[in-house]
Amino acid sequence: MSMQSETQAENKPRILVVEDDDSMRRSMQLFLRGRGYDVLTYATGDRLLLENDIEHGACLVADYRLGEQNGISLLVTLRARGWTGPAILMTGYPSEDLRSSAEIAGFDLFLEKPFQEHSLINGITRLMERQSGTRT
Asked: What is the pLDDT of residue 5?
């Protein structure tokens, strides 16, 4: 039974959350874990970029404003390193210019803060299905 539990944990899709607000980051971590995802959280994009196993991230959820870096430059760097997963950009400062820049950079979904938790989970589910080519 222990081996089965470990295997199930290993098979959970890994969500990479990059959010500089501690309470928001923790809230997202708890919410997504409660929905069955393996969640790794980072306060900055630089911390994520120090990881050796970024390729195991199934989906990126990044805030736009991350101190010295922003979510768009983070995704551009990840793409340059070969990461191909779906990506969601969150922001409390939406604009059409930002939405356009996010789309050009390769973000699949743009969420305006505050957003409902179901908007995030529905977006992740839809993007993961599209990535794997399945439909539930």
From this structure: 40
